[in-house]
Write a structure and sequence with these properties.
The N terminus is likely disordered. The radius of gyration is 23 Å and the shape is flat. By secondary structure, it is of the alpha/beta class. Helix 1 packs parallel to helix 9 and helix 4 packs antiparallel against helix 5. It is 41% helix and 19% strand.
Length: 375
């Protein structure tokens, strides 16, 4: 919601966490949100999706707080949804299939947790560790669900074509999409023109959603930087379909999630890490959704505001309050790095580095802004 209670498109951006049962999905989700989602060593312990809202890590806010001494610091939020474990046949309603697919449909992008660790004490639903097979199992269910939608789209376009030949291009395009899906590939692997991307977006396809593969490693492999053949397999698959890979150890993340900040930093430092895997995952998710943050700073509050990349100044102002967008005059803007270099807004004004931007200005990540408006 915006400050005045209106809906805005970035207010509920969701990342759905998916994976086969017992790959470390709920362990990871618990660590992300400290929400205490049920986690157990048997399939289907997650039936209703658990939801957790997390702060997007942003060290710039701490630095601004040192400069302004605000009463409060507010980070940009991101929502994670822990979706029920999937089994073969989900697209036909097996297991919790229909529920699983509709939960994914409601998410903006997917974090696909893939098991890349061996552990005899934790049963794998297929009896062995094979990331390529696991990824294929889930992708196949999403592909089968998408195929139904694409076939319906082709039928409708063919009927419409009888009265209007402009639908011929649509039929040709979706026949090509159908071939890609039938070959076992997700639609996100396709190279598309802008026009084709627009056509594809008219159908809510699950395999068009962007994906981060969270490769869940053992503590030894993760900490030791050992070559893990399972991880290499995941990287190869991700490269082919334009997806991202993030090596992570859910076990370590669960261990440090309850620690105090100083204790956590010492633990990470001992492992030679600058930040937790979760912080990396949250920031990667934010980037995957095409989101950036602009910053506002003052005595009452230092805050990061979420906008889509490419948003213009008046619409960014509307994130704070619809009145500011409606009565937008101009934005006083300085980029974060320049502000830090100069040490104060007064110094920035003296150097002429505080810019005055109008309605066509496209906001950049890290812009520190003061909006001038009149209602």
């Amino acid at each position: 919601m915006t400050a005045d209670g209106g809906k805005d498109e970035t207010s509920n951006m969701k990342l759905g966490i998916v994976g086969l049962p017992n790959v470390g999905k709920s362990t990871l989700f618990n660590a992300i949100t400290n929400a205490g989602a049920q986690s157990a060593n048997y399939p289907f312990c997650t039936i209703e999706p658990n939801v957790g809202v997390v702060d997007v890590p942003d060290k710039r806010l701490d630095k601004l707080a040192e400069m302004y001494h605000p009463e409060k610091i507010t980070h940009a939020p991101l929502e994670f949804v822990d979706i029920a474990g999937l089994v073969k046949g989900a697209s036909k309603g097996e297991g919790l299939g229909n529920k699983f697919l509709s939960n994914i449909r409601e998410c903006d992008a997917i974090v696909h947790v893939v098991r890349c660790f061996e552990n005899d004490d934790i049963v794998h639903v297929e009896g062995s560790i094979d990331p390529a097979r696991d990824i294929e199992t889930i992708n196949l269910e999403l592909i089968l669900s998408d195929l139904e939608l694409v076939e319906r789209k082709i039928d409708r376009a063919k009927k419409a074509m009888k009265g209007d030949k402009k639908f011929a291009a649509e039929v040709d395009f979706f026949e090509r999409v159908k071939e890609v899906l039938e070959s076992g590939k997700p639609t996100r692997s396709m190279e598309l023109t802008e026009e084709e991307e627009e056509m594809l977006s008219t159908v809510a396809l699950l395999t068009s959603k962007k994906v981060i593969y969270a490769a869940n490693l053992s503590e030894d492999d993760f900490a030791g930087g050992t070559e893990n053949p399972h991880l290499e397999t995941v990287k190869k698959i991700a490269a082919e379909e334009h997806s991202e890979v993030l090596p992570i150890c859910a076990e370590i993340e669960a261990e440090i999630s309850g620690m105090e900040p100083e204790e956590k930093m010492m633990f990470l430092s001992d492992m030679g890490l600058e930040e937790s895997g979760l912080d990396r995952l949250i920031r990667a998710g934010y980037h995957l959704l095409g989101l950036i943050s602009f910053l506002t700073a003052g005595q009452p509050e230092v805050r990061a505001w979420t906008i889509k990349r490419g948003t213009k100044a008046p619409q960014a102002a509307g994130k704070i309050h619809s009145d500011i967008e409606r009565g937008f005059i101009r934005a006083e803007v300085i980029d974060y790095d320049s502000l830090m270099e100069l040490g104060s807004l007064t110094a920035a004004k003296e150097k002429g580095l505080l810019r005055s931007e109008g309605k066509e200005y496209v906001m950049q990540d890290g812009d520190v802004v003061h909006f001038l408006f009149n209602v």
